[in-house]
Every structure is written in structure tokens, then in C-alpha cells.
Design a protein that fits this description.
Helices cover 29% and strands 36% of the residues. It is α+β, with helices and mostly antiparallel strands and 392 residues long. It has 2 domains: 13-97; 133-388, Lipocalin, CATH 2.40.128. A 4-stranded antiparallel beta sheet has the order 1-20-19-18, with no helix packed on it. The termini are far apart.
Length: 392
């Protein structure tokens, strides 16, 4: 090919190259334009989705805030209902205490006089024992000081005839509320009464001569004449009441002037220890029917009231505990056996370890063979050593 032909082809080739380059640039521009449109479309969609997500989040937060307010309103309403229910329960309890259920058997004065006359006819007769119990106290085997709780005078005890582990506490010598601890552990470990339930009695009690026996509380009420109230601990109602048929009663113990009737229990059942002006020097004793509160038999004992601080029954024998007005060592110094199977000279002279003052109450538990005592605000357990009686 000659040089002149090359000169002719060069412009043609340059034009072709420019055409191809132009087409390629147009192609690239179209692709870039399409890509920009897609990016713009994605940006618009992303912005819309972000806006919708933000609106949804705000809507959910608004719903959660509304739900929280409604929950708080419901909680407040529930608390208000609980407070109103608690107030209603207290009002019902108050109304029940102000209008207690009447005893199943009202006191018939004629019937009571007849029963008293029958009991007086049998007064000081030899007692026919109901059990084969022939034990008497030999000595104090052990003493345990549980704690110091409440007033200087009071009473604490367990059910003398049941299997319950509950501890019943009467703080002071006049009140209408009894503390109930579920077990000995709760009573021992806690100084406050937060572990105790409370029983508000329909009538106030007086003294420290009360007793828990076979699921019932036998307590003393003073309204003119003294009454023994039988109170069911399960349904919190008065089962029966009886005016104690003793005229011109006086404190039964010279060192415990707040106690006029001491209700006691032993292996033989229920007893009442009391004193009257008719025989003001000595202590009297009566056997009670725990079901009807009738007096079955009465005795004048040789045990003096002077310097007596407490008393309890063991196997049908009255044990009177004495002290001095300047507190010293308490001791059982008089024993009166209603069945006549224990001669006074054969009874042991039992001494209680010298502690703080004098006992305001001593409750014998025939099942455990121990005494629950209250000494100047201290709660003490005396475990007793027993021996057989020597029959007269």
C-alpha cells in the first residue's frame, strides 16, 4: 500500500474511533443516570421507612406510657380496695367484740344456786379420783430462763390438754388482748410482737389466773361479781360463762393482789383456786366441769393466803408457793391433796431457785410435767422431778 493510501485511511479511522468513543460515553452516561435514579429511589424509600419507623416507635412509646399509667392506676385502686377491705375487717372485728355472740347457755340463777348448794353439801368430802395419777413433786430438776417480755406481772402458757405448740401470753394484769406465738422458737428469738397474732377478747380480763385448756381459753372477767368465761380459740366466740358463786371474794394470794380466781389444770381436769372473807386467812379450792363450768365439789384448805404468791395443781393436790414481801427464795410450803392419798408430812418442801422478784403466775402443764412461770417480767420454765405418793 502506498503512502498516499495511508493518508486517505487515517481520517476514516479517526472518525470511526470518535464515533465508538461517543457511543461508549453515551452508554456510560445512561448507566450512571440509571444508577443515580436507583440511588435516589433507595434514598427516598429509606427516608420513608425511617419516618415510618420513627412514627411507629413514638406510637409504641405512647402506648407503653398509657399502659404504665393504667397499671399504676389499677395498682393504686387495688391498694385502695385492700385498705378498705382491711378497714372493713377491723370494723367487723370491732362490731363482733362490741356485740359478742351470746353464750350457748345463759346463767340461770336458780340452777346456779342449786349447783352451789349441791357442791357445798359435798364440801370438804374426800375426792374420788378420775385417773390413776399417783405422782407428786419431788424437786425442781432444771430451770430455763427464756427471755424478758412485757410487764413485771403477767402470764404465759401452752394448752394444758392439747397438742398445740402455740404460746399464749397475757401481758399485765388487766387487758383485752392476748398474744399468740406459733411456736416456742418465735417467742424466744424475737423481742417484739411482730411474730405474734393477737386475739381481742369480747370482755377484758383481770388478774393472772387464766388457762388454755383443750382448745379453749378460760379467763376471769370482773363486772360486779367475778365471771369465768369459756372462749373458743378456733372460732373466736364465747362458748359459756358462769358467775363464780363465792360471796365477798378477796385476792387469793397475799403477794399477788390482782388475782382473785386462779383457774388451774392437772391430770384430773380443771380447778378453781380462790378466797373469800368468810375464811379470809386460808385458800379455798373447787373442782370445775370444763364443759359446763359447774362446780362439782369445794374444799377449805389449810394453806394460808399470807405470803402466798402463786399456786398450781398436780395429780389432784394443791401446791401453794410462798415468798416474802422482800423477795427471797420461792418455795412450796403447803400441799393439800383432795383425795387424801398424800399426807402433808410426806410432801416434799420444794424450793425454786432465787431469781428476780416473786412469781405473778405459775402454770403447771400435766403433759410436759413442767411449770411456765412469770417472774418480774422474766419468762421461766421449771422442769419438775416427780415421785410416787405415799398413801395415808
Amino acid at each position: 500500500m502506498g503512502p498516499w493510501r495511508c493518508l486517505i485511511l487515517l481520517p476514516l479511522l479517526a472518525g470511526a474511533l470518535r464515533a465508538q468513543q461517543q457511543q461508549f460515553m453515551e452508554y456510560v452516561e445512561r448507566r450512571l443516570t440509571l444508577l443515580e435514579e436507583r440511588i435516589s429511589q433507595w434514598h427516598d424509600q429509606s427516608s420513608r421507612y425511617s419516618t415510618e419507623l420513627r412514627d411507629f416507635k413514638n406510637q409504641v412509646l405512647g402506648m407503653l406510657e398509657t399502659a404504665e399509667k393504667e397499671r399504676e392506676a389499677m395498682r393504686t385502686e387495688a391498694e385502695s380496695v385492700a385498705v378498705r377491705m382491711d378497714r372493713l375487717e377491723r370494723e367487723v372485728d370491732y362490731l363482733e367484740t362490741q356485740n359478742p355472740a351470746p353464750p350457748c347457755v345463759e346463767v340461770d340463777e336458780t340452777l346456779m344456786e342449786k349447783q352451789v348448794a349441791t357442791a357445798k353439801q359435798r364440801k370438804n368430802e374426800k375426792y374420788t379420783k378420775l385417773t390413776d395419777c399417783s405422782d407428786t413433786i419431788a424437786s425442781v430438776r432444771a430451770m430455763k430462763i427464756l427471755k424478758r417480755f412485757g410487764s413485771t406481772s403477767g402470764l404465759w402458757t401452752k394448752d394444758a390438754a392439747g397438742n398445740s405448740e402455740k404460746i399464749y401470753v397475757f401481758d399485765g394484769t388487766a387487758n383485752d388482748t392476748v398474744y399468740v406465738f406459733p411456736r416456742m422458737r418465735e417467742f424466744t428469738l424475737f423481742s417484739a410482737t411482730r411474730k405474734a397474732s393477737r386475739i381481742k377478747l369480747p370482755y377484758p380480763w383481770v388478774g393472772t389466773g387464766h388457762l388454755v385448756y383443750d382448745g379453749h381459753l378460760y379467763y376471769i372477767r370482773q363486772q360486779g361479781p367475778f365471771q369465768v368465761i369459756k372462749f373458743n380459740l378456733a372460732n373466736k366466740t364465747v362458748v359459756d360463762s358462769s358467775v363464780f358463786p363465792a360471796e365477798e371474794q378477796i385476792p387469793v394470794f397475799g403477794l399477788s393482789p390482782f388475782t382473785y380466781i386462779e383457774v388451774a389444770a392437772d391430770e384430773e381436769g380443771l380447778w378453781a383456786i380462790y378466797a373469800t372473807k368468810e375464811d379470809e386467812k386460808n385458800i379455798c379450792l373447787a373442782k370445775l366441769d370444763p364443759t359446763s363450768l359447774d362446780i362439782e365439789q369445794m374444799w377449805d384448805t389449810p394453806c394460808p393466803r399470807e405470803n402466798a404468791e402463786a399456786a398450781f395443781m398436780v395429780c389432784g393436790a394443791l401446791h401453794v408457793v410462798y415468798n416474802t414481801r422482800l423477795p427471797s427464795r420461792s418455795r412450796v410450803q403447803c400441799v393439800f391433796d383432795v383425795s387424801g392419798t398424800l399426807a402433808p408430812e410426806d410432801a416434799s418442801l420444794v424450793y425454786f431457785p432465787k431469781r428476780y422478784g416473786s412469781h405473778s403466775s405459775m402454770k403447771y402443764n400435766p403433759q410436759e410435767r413442767q411449770i411456765y412461770a412469770w417472774d418480774d417480767g422474766y419468762q421461766i420454765i421449771y422442769r419438775m422431778e416427780m415421785k410416787k405418793k405415799l398413801e395415808v
